[in-house]
Design a protein that fits this description.
This protein has one helix and 75 strands. With about 625 residues, it is mainly β. Among the domains are: about 250 residues, Pectate Lyase C-like, CATH 2.160.20.10; about 130 residues, no CATH class. It has a 69-stranded mixed sheet that branches. β15 and β16 form a beta hairpin. This is Filamentous hemagglutinin-like protein.
């Protein structure tokens, strides 16, 4: 190809560029008015007045104003709306290609300054309706739409921007021109049924006094903050401001049943005292954490899930009735009081604590579970692969089914157990008063400590040893079984007629007061009983030795028998039933009277010792 041909081609290429630019400019001029019916720059805004274009296909184009030294292009409008055909914010001094409008002519406002890093659109009059996509032409930039009169998004979306902020606050710019945050005193931000698409946006901030969500929100990182106050650019409350109308909204953040928030990470913040968060829809943090902070109540009736941690903080009540869970992390709940009536799932720890009453009537499954309140009602299903820890400052009621794979610990001022408590390891109950009508089933040790009275009316069993310590009365009305040793220590001990106490190893009964036995007590090895007085109409037996040391009176109307040796020592000893040893010696000693009117037998020697005389009659 000769030089002349090359020159002609270059000339034509240059003319083509100019023709394209001229065509675009002409198109802007011919179709500008209808497209601009939805936008109106603020009159007398001076340098903050943006320019106007229309793309070849009719999409409106805003030529943003030149940015300041901090890279912020501050544009002011009296009306700012986005229709279904969308809106282009022109951030390029050169011709640029867009998804919404094809090629767009360059923005002459940027010829000297270059592109903006943040485009601030401040609306001063009517509320804004966003019903289509807003695209930044040219260099990617952060985008802010601020309208104190309110913003509604119903099918809105954002293209070629790294961060989007929709706020009903007034922008606060520093003396250096930086965007420091917003002052929010009112205004509602609503997401309609057609939702908000910020799927390719790194971060989405929704900052208003009230936020309602009826559709789906998609983004990478989401921060939604509601409440009157001065907030920084990240939506964190700096100080509280009075609301414009003087009253409080009923709800700060409201996610309807068909609404949803889908992001890698989600944070919801309700900063106004007494105003909370309600979600009947879906909150899904798909690859990170989900955090909810509320100065009021929190109500979660839909699906609230995260891949990593879930943290909920409420100064008011927490009401959870849907699905709440973490796929790989922990779930932490803090509130003034809480009702957990849904499904709770955590791969790690589930930790729920309240200053008031905690009511659990749902189903919870986690690596470990901890529930604590001033009062705890655990009537649902609790399954912890690791430790289960239930606590209350006052009454702890457990009427459901609870399991702790690595141990179960209940502690309260008062424990009332009517359900089932199981553990793959040990179980420990610590309280002032304990009333267990249900089942206690420990794979290893079972320990029950009560500073006051303890009643066991159900089944209590341990795969290893077990012990009961009661500062008051110990009532055994059901079955207590230990595969190893069993020790009972109380101010007084009552074993009811149908009750059974059994130890695979030694059985120790100790009381500073009376021991009354109408049921059965069995030791797989040795039985040791020490008390102020003993009255037994049931059975006391040991596979090996039995030792009874009674400071006062010992009265037997049932059976007292040892497989090997028997030793009974009392201030007064009376046996109207069977007493003796099967293979070894039997020694009955009284520091007062000794009366034997039943069967008295010994496999070895029988020794009777009475300081005040012995009376023996019977078969």
């Amino acid at each position: 190809m000769d030089n002349e041909a090359v020159g002609v081609r270059g000339y034509l290429a240059e003319q083509s560029k100019r023709a394209l630019a001229l065509l675009l400019c002409c198109t802007v001029t011919w179709t500008s008015f209808p497209a601009w019916a939805q936008l109106a720059p603020t009159a007398n805004a001076g340098r903050q007045t943006p320019g106007q274009q229309v793309a070849a296909n009719g999409v409106p184009v805003v030529d943003i104003v030149a940015p300041n030294a901090r890279g912020i292009s501050h544009n002011r409008y009296s009306n700012f709306n986005v229709g279904p055909n969308g809106l282009i914010l022109n951030n390029s001094a050169q011709i640029s290609k867009t998804e919404l409008g094809g090629y767009v002519a360059g923005n002459n406002n940027l010829q000297r300054s270059g592109a903006a890093s943040l485009i601030l659109n401040e609306v001063t009059s009517a509320s804004s309706r966003l019903q289509g996509y807003t695209e930044i032409a040219g260099a990617k930039a952060q985008l802010v739409i601020a309208n104190p009169n309110g913003i509604s998004c119903d099918g809105c979306g954002f293209l070629n921007t790294s961060r989007v902020t929709l706020t009903t606050g007034t922008p606060n710019l520093g003396s250096d021109g930086a965007l420091n945050g917003f002052s929010i005193t009112g205004g509602a931000l609503s997401i309609g049924r057609n939702g908000l698409d910020a799927f390719n946006v790194d971060r989405l901030d929704l900052l208003s006094r009230q936020l309602s969500v009826d559709g789906s929100i998609w983004t990478r990182a989401l921060v939604a903050a509601a409440g009157a106050g001065r907030v920084n650019y990240d939506g964190m409350l700096l100080d509280v401001l009075p609301g414009a109308d003087g009253g409080l909204p009923a709800i700060g953040i409201d996610v309807a049943q068909l609404g949803g928030m889908y992001a890698e990470r989600i944070r919801l913040i309700a900063t106004e005292a007494g105003v909370g968060v309600v979600s009947r829809g879906t909150l899904a943090a798909q690859s990170g954490d989900l955090q909810i902070d509320s100065a009021g109540q929190v109500s979660l009736g839909g699906t609230t899930v995260a891949r990593d941690a879930v943290n909920v903080r409420a100064t008011g009540a927490l009401d959870q009735r849907g699905v709440l869970g973490s796929q790989q992390g922990n779930v932490s709940l803090r509130a003034a009081s809480m009702t957990l009536a849904g499904d709770l799932v955590a791969a790690g720890a589930l930790d729920a604590q309240a200053g008031g009453v905690v009511t659990h009537v749902g189903r919870s499954s986690a690596g470990s579970i901890r529930l604590f309140g001033s009062e705890l009602n655990a009537d649902g299903s609790l399954h912890a692969a690791g430790a289960l820890d239930l606590g209350a400052g006052g009454l702890l009621r457990s009427g459901g089914v609870a399991y702790g794979g690595a141990g179960a610990n209940l502690r309260a001022a008062q424990i009332a157990l009517s359900g089932t408590l199981q553990s793959g390891a040990a179980i420990a109950l610590n309280a002032t008063a304990i009333d267990a009508l249900g089942t206690l089933d420990a794979a290893t040790a079972l320990q029950i400590n009560g500073n006051g009275n303890v009643r066991l009316a159900g089944l209590a069993q341990a795969g290893q040893g077990a012990g009961v310590q009661a500062g008051g009365r110990l009532e055994l009305q059901g079955q207590m079984i230990a595969a190893d040793a069993l020790a009972l220590n109380a101010a007084s001990i009552d074993i009811a007629q149908r009750a059974a106490v059994s130890a695979g190893n030694d059985l120790d009964l100790r009381s500073a007061g009376a021991v009354n036995n109408a049921g059965s007590a069995y030791a797989g090895r040795d039985l040791r009983l020490q008390a102020a007085s003993v009255s037994t109409a049931g059975s006391l037996s040991a596979a090996r030795d039995a030792q009874l040391a009674v400071a006062g009176e010992l009265v037997n109307r049932g059976t007292v028998v040892a497989g090997n040796a028997l030793s009974a020592d009392a201030a007064q000893l009376e046996s109207r039933g069977d007493i003796g040893s099967q293979r070894g010696d039997a020694t009955l000693r009284s520091r007062g009277n000794l009366r034997l009117s039943g069967n008295t037998v010994a496999g070895g020697a029988l020794a009777l010792d009475a300081a005040s005389g012995a009376q023996v009659w019977g078969p």
